[in-house]
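Listing S7. Sequence submitted for prediction.
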Amino acid sequence: MENTVNNNQINDFDLKSILKLGQKYWYLFVLLPVLCVIIAALVKVFTVPQYTTSSSILLKSDEANLAKQVLNLSSGFFDNYDGAIDDEITVIKSNRLFGVLADDMNLRTETYIKKNMLWWITYQDEPLLTVFPQDFLTNLKGTLTIYVSKNADKSFSFKFVLFENRVKTVSKYNVKALDEPIKTKWGDFVFVEQAKNLTEKNKDYRLKIVTYSFKGAVARLAREITVARNNKSSNIIVFSMMSSNPKRNESILNNFIDIYLNDKVLDQNKISRQMADFVTERVGLIFQELKDAEQRVEDYRKRHNIVDISTQSQNIIQRTSEYEKQIANVDVQLSLIGFIETYLKKTESTELLPPNTGIQDNAINGMIGAYNDLVLKYQKLSNTATAENPAVMSLQSQINTLKNNILQTIDNYKKSAEITKNDLKQKSSSSLSQMQGVPTIERELIDISRQQQIKEALFVFLLQKREEVQLSLAMATSSAKIVEPAYTHAVPQTMGFKKMALFALVIGLILAAGIVYLLQFLKDKVTSLEDLKQHTKLPILGSLPKIDKNVGYVAVTTGKHSILGEKFRMMRTNLSFVMQNKDSKVVLVTSYMPEEGKTFVSINLSLSLALTNKKVALLGLDVRKPCLAKYLNIKATPGITNFISDTEISVQDIGQKLDINENVSVFVGGTVPPNPSELLCSERLDLLIEELRKKFDFVIIDSAPVGLLTDTLVINRVTDAVILVAKAGITRYSDIKHLGELVEDKHLTNASILLNNEERQDDAAKYGRYGY
């Protein structure tokens, strides 16, 4: 039950502390919200409304699983790979495409027109065009801003601001007309006014023409245009951008998507173009070979006068011809395979192979298609990633592996084809051996004709392939589809004033609370009685209010009532609880550091006790800096140091009664000794205190600060109680902690603490109700 009560008290105290902090800093909770609302209103008025434009495309891509399908992998790196769409987004956001967009739409220069103190971006309606000096845009490395003002008298004012390599250069020019170029240090600038874009409202206009370097324009477009996946499982890519000109947004997004789609078509045509080049080259070679073969047949027939084959050997010849056709087909396949093998060996691993070459082996054709797909993906990733990128390295490894597999498969195919060809030759030879009556000339003619047929078949095949490739190039389309063209929302993407004001109000309150918290967090000095309670376990006698400096050092007098006097009376009452033993009379008043009010407390505590007809002795034992005589306007010597050092001086010789209250006798410090600490260890001090105990009801000792000197710890041997004075706004938390450590180590006897100079605004009202 005791713990519960204590916790509740702590929570109540914390809540009260928070409320008191809010009351103390009420002006922050009023001014900051009002200031934030005013700032929000200004931002609303002086902010150009921004419109959001978006577009989307559907991307069909199986590239993510390509390598896994080709290599027939069931586990490993590609099992969880689903980054084809993300890779495509990386390609879209590449500086290369943004650079093409900047060049195609001339986005390196933007023109702003000032309306109602705000700069509005223009698009295809700017009243002034700029013609830059030759090579200026090429050599520009920073940003050039040109401020143009058309005056009422039709004259123009120009201000050129070039920021390049962290150096700002400003030039100003005034011209009466735009007839002549403006000669600047960067070259001659020509400005052409567009009459079609001039209206009655903007005939006297102010422009800001901003020109970026190529890299600056690319970086700006990369910041403005957002490219993101619609969701994690979707193949839809969303493009969006925001500016004050919806027409500009839509035009930029539509053009950017067109640039990307055209770029994708070009990527897809790479294989077809490679195939077209390969076929064209082979057609030329085979055409010449075919021409030579036909010429040999013609020459042989003329030389031997051959017109027709005899009817007798027709059947044998037909059978033999069938074998020869099969042999020719095998030779064609070997020739095509040889072409691919030679091309594959002499090309790099990142170059495309010609597909659909007529090879009849499906395995080889499939591997060539897979190889080309991997090469295309590698080329795409190489544009946006380095060679050390894991995805690039993985693709390179797959390409090399697949290349080796293709070469191995071709080698196996050639061996198999050679076996087939040898078998067909044996059959053909067996058939020819039956033609004993067939002249040798006829056999030689058949051999020559076979070579002609091979070349002719290969030539016709290549011509057919060339037409297919040309048709493929003409009909090529992108695998991406526009889902929604650029569309701008009708409502600007700005917060309404009511919401903005409410948001600003909340921000202001949060700022005020944060500042108050920061002040409390950084605060290292005691400011209130509640604050003192949180940082000490010592008994608290009470607190004294902050008073005017002109009050003086005597605040408690007979017949005079004040808030401060009442506080000392309360302190007097609380002191009686501290000193419950009737023999306890000696009270030592000290502080941790100087200027905390210990002497003021000593004087007025003595006067408060004297008002109850108690005889009080007030001792000034701050012997290094005695102040009682000065504050009370009495003699400074002889004093206690004189009594201790001179045995001829008696207690009666150093005591002085106060005129304002004869119940108080003051014993000043006396002459400042060279050895204060040693002097205070003298038995004469004990003798003095013993005699004062007999003659007075209370002995109040004004001692030195305990945080600087050991004098107070020496005097502590003769005291019954110690009052530690802390001053609000002066005493640090660390000082309070050290005072508590001195008490815990029993260097100070029966200690309690008093807060001086507390600023409390409610005390006057409370006491005023009682007539004070």
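Caption to Listing S7: primary sequence and predicted structure tokens for the chain studied. Confidence is low (pLDDT under 50) at residues 1-13, 62-81, 767-772. The radius of gyration is 52 Å.
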